[in-house]
Specification:
- With 294 residues, the chain is an all-alpha fold.
- It contains 17 helices and two strands.
- Strand 1 and strand 2 form a beta hairpin.
Length: 294
Amino acid sequence: MKQPPTYRSLTFLFLLSITSLCAEYELQRAVAQNDLILTTKWLRSGVLINQIDHFGFAAIHYSAFYNHPSLAQLLFAKGADVATQVGVPDGLVKLNIKAPPSLLQYEGFTAQGIAENQGSSGVIVALSGESTCELNPEQFTLELFHSVKNNFPYKLATLLRSKGEFVDLDQYDREGCTLLGYAVQGGLVQMTAILLACGADAKQRLGNPLDSSKKRYTPLLLAQEAFADHVNSPDQFKYDTVIKLLRACGARDASSHTLEAILLDESTKIKENGNFLQIPKKTKRRSRRGVTFG
């Protein structure tokens, strides 16, 4: 027997019908749809993250209302204002729209308050990070790599929120790899989304952290190779999602000619010095912004 629609589903359908007419609310729509790829793309594009729609809701409020912890964490890492209260603007009256009571009942609520009222425990945790500003730059960088390698998205989101635009997400570690490189190689979907949303370079060449004999890879090449190694395995979907995230954020498949040039170009080799893989001279200019490891 077909179940009657719940108030959330009815509210969602109403929301889609309105936001489809308002292109400036695409971020809210993507969050309401629980679309990780589209949400990441919009955040990376520089959309106004705290913009209020005709119901007085920002994207962070929808993540709490619909109980989407992963998207709440993504918005939190990007710097969404968790203290913003739901407030219905005059535009609601001008459009002659009667919003569902399930939305209007939260006027004056913050995202945390909505999550508590909705019983969204995952969202509550995602929005409760603590500042880590007391770390010096070297410690901060080490913490970033530690959080990615160990798949701690909560910790990564908190670190990025505390430092914001001052973080260099494209620096290399001792293995010649970046934060995004480790996230992609491990099939860490949430980590990849957070890094891309916060501006990590989807096209930057890097060393394969698991095989230093491979010359220079892009994150997309790493993901595609990992996907091929996990076909028909439980991890296949993860790598497929990572590939879609990278492509949505500007990564493009290399042509056979370009790929051959990358693999054969001697100037892009990672020079091995004992157990330390140094950054090649060709890319050294970009890596100066990061922390130098001794």
